[in-house]
Amino acid sequence: MSSGTVYKNYINGKWVESKSGKTFENLNPADKTDLIGVFQKSNAEDVKAAIDAAAEAYKKWRLVPAPKRGEILYRVAARLTANKEQYARDMTREMGKILIETRGDVQEAIDMTYYMAGEGRRLFGMTTPSELPNKFNMTIRQPVGVCAFITPWNFPMAIPSWKMMPALICGNTIVIKPATDTPMSVVNLMQACDAEGVPPGVVNMVTGSGGALGDALIGDDRVKIVSFTGSTEIGRKVSEACAPKFKHVCLEMGGKNVQIVMDDANLDLAVEGALWGAFGTTGQRCTATSRLIIHKDVAQKMTAMLVDRAKALKVGNGLDESVNMGPCVNESQMNTVLGYMEIGKKDGAKLLCGGGRLTGGNYDKGYFLQPTIFGEVTTKMRIWKEEIFGPVLSIGTFSSFDEAIAMANDTAYGLSASLYTRDVNKAYAAMRDVYTGIFYVNAPTIGAETHLPFGGTKETGNGHREAATAALDVFSEWKSIYVDFSGTIQRAQIDNAD
Fold this sequence. Notes:
Number of strands: 22
CATH class of the largest domain: Alpha Beta
Organism: candidate division GN15 bacterium
Shape: globular
Number of helices: 15
Domain Aldehyde dehydrogenase: 15-481
Keywords: NAD, Oxidoreductase
Distance between the termini: 81 Å
Number of domains: 2
CATH topology of the largest domain: Aldehyde Dehydrogenase, Chain A, domain 1
Radius of gyration: 24 Å
CATH superfamily of the largest domain: Aldehyde Dehydrogenase, Chain A, domain 1
Family: Belongs to the aldehyde dehydrogenase family.
CATH architecture of the largest domain: 3-Layer(aba) Sandwich
Strand content: 15-25%
Largest sheet: 7 strands, mixed
Protein name: aldehyde dehydrogenase (NAD(+))
């Protein structure tokens, strides 16, 4: 084990070593010689200790008035704001995406924390008239209990905040297991909570591998809600594991997102959108633009423009502010994407640019791939159908608007889609007919904002949404309350029959 700062688990308001006595290194994917830190390789005992703390803290936290919980979150948001640049640099080092993106990731956590802090003075229910005299009806939200969060590496502070902040404002307590590749960003989030007075046991963190810790988190009867972001394959297993106990489950999984370009589109704008959507975060977003379908009348022109721009993208260490695209997060992810590049070639797609690994000089220190574009991709090809999660864009063409809609919907997923057109009628028709949870007009498939629900249809999710007030439905239960002050027994649907 190389020397480096040792970071501990956060359990019951204290920084503690794992009971396993084991640790692991977190290395920069752009420079494997750069050690970010040494983190705890936790085990089931650590998970139990964290759940113990969360279960005990829940008894008091649920009774703290929601506005007071909100005041604490306001302070956490302010601390995140003050430390934004350092947190962004830590994130670029551990995850690889460029600084403007990691600053945005931290900003998203800031926005979500402020947003949910404000919900502390709302958490609206409703009042309704009763069908009977001298009777009052209303609804309220109530917390559920201990929440378990399993979060991904691609948005290592934003996505944890999507889960944490609505859970906390509703009065729940949490145990979070960050992705093995990006524990530092969640450590920073825990430090902010600790510094700003989140009570001991309300937030807890254990680091380590998902396989070792996931079963212990999900299997504990005291965990009432499980929120998972990751692959559809693992999400299905999470859902099956939670089903016997009827735990609440929120799943945010894969995507195979499409950008449609009509013949009347502003091609310069469409090219910019495709570049950002496909190669932002090195294509490692669930909302990344993986499929581009272009009207046949403008396909040749736009493809040429796009390939020229993609070839000009500067790939390198994200700490260099002149860089446009960073590395893959790890060697395994890089090899997966390289495998899909070979699949595309073998299946007959036309390689227009990229198609391999970048080597030589500083590239040999990390996991760098070329921005890759395939043309003449058909709907039968694997690179059209399967999520790649890397800087690979597949281009197809269409002849009519109806054909474009059919191609857009030809996927097992339903997260995000976009349409470039100047025709308002086609824009509204596409909004209606493309079956996704998120839709953009004249914008890329990436760029969700915290005050709108985030999530998808089909194999992207299980019907729940993250962010905005929709997240409150994941982390609270509705209670309908009837107050009868008539002094008699009144029977609904019976005594009002006449």
